[in-house]
Amino acid sequence: MSAIVVTPQYITYFNNPSGVIQGAIGSALAAGSVVGSAIAGPLSDKIGRRDSIMFACLFWLIGTSVQVACQNHGQLIAGRVLNGFTVGITSSQVPVYLAEIAKAEKRGSLVIIQQLAIEFGILIMYFIGYGCASIEGPASFRTAWGTQFIPCFFLIIGLPFLPRSPRWLAKVGRDKEAIETLANIQANGDVNDPLVVAEWEEIVTVMRAENEAGRGWRKFFQNGMWKRTLAGMSVQAWQVSRAAPKSGGMCTDLCSNLLAPTSSSII
Predict the structure, then answer these.
(1) What is the rounded distance in angstroms from the CA atom of residue 165 to the CA atom of residue 187?
(2) CA of residue 30 relative to chain centroid, distance
C-alpha cells in the first residue's frame, strides 16, 4: 500500500484522500490482524496448524479480490481488513507450524528464514509498486494489488503436501499418526529411532505440563509455563517495536512531501 499511495493514479481515482481516510486505509490491515491473532490460537487447536493456515488463505483471496475490484474508500478498507485477518492468523501460526514440523537442529534457522522471507517480500512489493506506477489509470494500483494472489496461490497448492503438526496430532489424541509423522520428519519413517523416541517423550511431557496448568490465564504462568510465555511475548514485542514496520508505511508520504510528486518520490 505504501508504494501506491503517492502515485497520481491512486490520488486521482480516490480524490486525494485526506489524512484521516488514508490513515483508516493504512490501519485497516492492523485492525484485521488484531481479530485474526485473537482467534488464531483456538482455531489452530481446533483444526490444526496446517488447516488454519489454509483457512486464512481463503480470506486473503477474498480480501485481495475486494481490493482489486474496489470502487471507493469503504471497499478498500474492507478488503484490507480481510487481508489483515489473514495476517493475524498466519503471523502467529506459521512460525509455530514450522517449528513443530522441522528437525530439532533446524527449527531456529527455519523460523529465521521465514522472517527474512517476509522482509524480502516487502522489498519485492516496493519494486512492484514502482513498476506499476508507469501503468495508466486505475489499472496501475489494481495490478499491484492483484499480485497478492500469486504467493497465496502457491501456498494453497503446496500446503496439502506438508505434514500435519505432530504436536497437534498428539494434542487431539491421534498418537499413532503423530509418531508416524514424527518418524517421517526425524528418521525417514523409523519409529524406533532414538531421536523419534526422545522427541515423542518431550511432546508428552510438555502436554502433561499444559494439562496440569489448568485453564484460564493462570496456565500461562504455572508449572514453569511462564518461561515459554515470556519468550513468546518478548519475540513479538521486539518484532513490532522495531522501526521497519512503521517507517515503511511512512517513507513514501514523507518523500512525497519533501520532493515533487514525480518518479523521484516514488523511488
Answers:
(1) 16
(2) 12
For cell 521486539, name the residue.
238
Torsion of CA 127, 15, 24, 57, to 10 degrees: -50
- Number of structural domains, the chain? 1
Domain with 107, as residue range(s), is 1-162
Q: What is the pTM of this model?
A: 0.82
What is the tens place of the pLDDT at every residue in 114-157?
A: 888 888 988 898 899 889 988 999 999 999 999 999 999 999 99
Residue 38 located in a structural domain? yes
150 in helix, strand or coil?
helix
Is residue 255 in some structural domain? no
Query: What is the C-alpha separation between 155 and 213, in angstroms, rounded?
Result: 35
CATH number at residue 56: 1.20.1250.20
Closest CA to 172 of 10, 32, 49, 56: 49
User: What is the CA angle 164-169-173, rounded to 5?
Assistant: 160
57 in any annotated domain: yes
